[in-house]
Each structure stands twice: as structure tokens, then as C-alpha cells.
Model the fold of this input.
Amino acid sequence: MKKARYLVEDLYTADPAAHVFNGKIYIYPSHDVESGIPENDLGDHFDMRDYHVFSMDDIDGEVTDHGVALAVKDIPWSGRQLWDSDCAFKNGKYYLYFPLKDKTDIFRIGVAISDKPEGPFVPQEAPMKGSYSIDPCVFEDEDGNHYMYFGGLWGGQLQRYRDNKAIECGQEPADDEQALPARVAKLSDDMLEFGEEPKALVILDENGEAVKAGDHGRRFFEASWMHKYNGKYYFSYSTGNTHKLCYAVGDNPYGPFTYQGVILTPVVGWTTHHSIVEFKGKWYLFHHDCVPSKGKTWLRSMKVVELEYDANGKIITIEGTAE
Done:
């Protein structure tokens, strides 16, 4: 899998969150559709209405579409836009975490439950208390604790909050101020709520200083992912308007994390969402681009390629599809 492979031809899929459950890879992507909404910086043209779950027995094998696992119309508190989701397993149940705008057009994070990794998932009556913004990623540490990482700028509304509280006229900090951080919170034992107040996930530069808001090549924008390699915690994310996947490394799930470099250079299309998973002794990067849709940034296609580390644990940069 040194050369990236597209996984689904008959649907547009993006933001793939890949996990190994029961010896198979299960993928939880967004389902892109042509809505006819003009492009804007708030992402209104990403008007997704449902999720499909996919599975693979082998990395180069057949991809099974398990059909619709959850739809906007089934969620009691729904407004619009089902964006990047993730799934976790605990005590025989599978928990699908999803961002969705409520009836007031504010993003919240919801939870839906299933007995099977492919769903269908039954949503809770209300979103997680105190949840906001987008792109939930749930990481299970070796001690069995689960942590949610979340947040996204611009259309993801993270700039509207400070210290977990909504502010008036929310905007990004000035270029010379600390960048807005992603958030991290340990989940409650029942997996349905935050088990604590979400904390700032700070990314430091090589001098131990927090990355500045004006450092668009390194600052967090969206698309959190967490994985562990050789005892270190690897927090990876998208830089958004500079279109890179980057990563930072820390010694515990909360950080701080020190910036290390670029995982994936820009791809065709605006966004780069991803997940990183180990399967049968190798590591893989699941991501997406817009090559099959000829560059329509709201019609994306997920793909997978092998991810490699050097002897020092640094991720070897993968070249994207952008010219």
C-alpha cells in the first residue's frame, strides 16, 4: 500500500475515521452530497445528511458498504450538517460521536449507540452537555480511559468560544497571540458525556513556546486525531487554509504537544481530514482528496496509504495530490 488506494467509487466519502474492531477495519466517513449550496468560508456547501459505515477484512481487499448507519432525520435535536464523526467501543457497545448543528444553527456533539460496529446507531435525545464545535475524535488509552479531542475553526465555530464558554462576536486571536487550541476531555464512564471540563490542547514550537495564531502553517485548524506509537502520544490535525496534515508529540493524553512536522502535503481540494491506524503490523493513513470529482471540494473521496516512521519515531512525510 505504498501507493494510495481509493476505497469507494459509488459514493463521495470524506473524513475517514478508521478503527480495528473484531479483526477488521471499520471506517466511519462523512457522506458528501451535491446540495447546490454555493461555497463559502462557513462550509455551508458541506451539507451532509447521513453516515454510511464501511469495513475491510484486508487493507487491499474488498470494501463493504453497510448502508446508512445514522441520518439527520433520525436525530431528535437535529438542525443540519452531519460532519466528521468517530466511533469507540466499550463494554459491548459501539458509540458514534458526531457534530451536528442544532435547531439554532450551533454545532453540538451528539452520541448514538449500537450493538454492532456497522450500526445502525440510535441517537440520544440531546447532544452532550457542554459540547460545541466539530470533529470529535475518541482515543482509548491502554488503561481503558477514553478521551475526546474536538474543535474546528471558521465553519466549525471554535473561534466563538473561550474556556468552553460562548463569547460575543467570536473571532480568531490576533496573529501574535496564542493560537486557539483544540480541546480534550476524558469521557464519563457511560461514554455519553464529558467526564470533566474540556481542556486546551496546546501545541508548542521547537523553543517551547505556544504556536501563534498567525502561524497558519502549523496552528491547529480542525480534524483532530490521536494515536500512540512507541509509548508517545501523537496528536495530528489539519492546518485548514494552508491545507496540510501536521502532528505534534507529547507524553500524556493532555499534552503539551511539541510540533514535529508534516504528515501529508496539500491534496486536490480544500480540506484534509484523516485517521491513523495500525493493522496487521503496519500503520496506515486514511484521508481524502477531490481528484475523482475533478476538484469539487465538497465532493471528496477517501483513500488509504501506508504510513511509515523513521528510527527516531518521526513520521515520513507523504506527498499529497495537489500540483
Notes: The longest strand covers residues 12-21.
